[in-house]
Amino acid sequence: MKKQPPLTTYDAVKEKALRLLEFRSHSEEELRQKLRRQGASEEHIEETLEFCRKYGFVNDEQYALAKAKDLMNLKKFGPRRIRSELKAKGISPELIEIAMEELDTDAGTSELKRLVSRKLSGDFSPKSLNRCIRYFLYRGYELRDIRSCIEETVAMELSD
To answer: Most buried of the four, 78, 101, 151, 159, by CB within 10 Å?
Structure first.
């Protein structure tokens, strides 16, 4: 693959930003970093981001909410992991909290119950239970929620 020449003009920076946004949405910080790596000047990057904000191509609040919903619904991540992923994308703590308030955490808890039941699939050995706990901790769920779901799953399985 040919190495791209550095972006030296405002038009080149704007064109690159629009090409990047054509494929998927980006946070302002993500876009800033990608343009910086291409050799764009800070002045051109700021002008380009202002243009993108003005026309609604970049909106961190909408991006944070959409990303949080995707992470919860598609990747089945818990609240801690969602916060971490949004922070890594350069979203401000205030916007992360706004996005987290919009999420349906009750649906996340019922989904966790279903996932725990499926993950254990009737194997309640200590090794399997510990593996399940580690798995869901990594995915961003709280330990108390995981244990509660495991207890409910075990109780349901043993009562059947």
So the answer is: 78
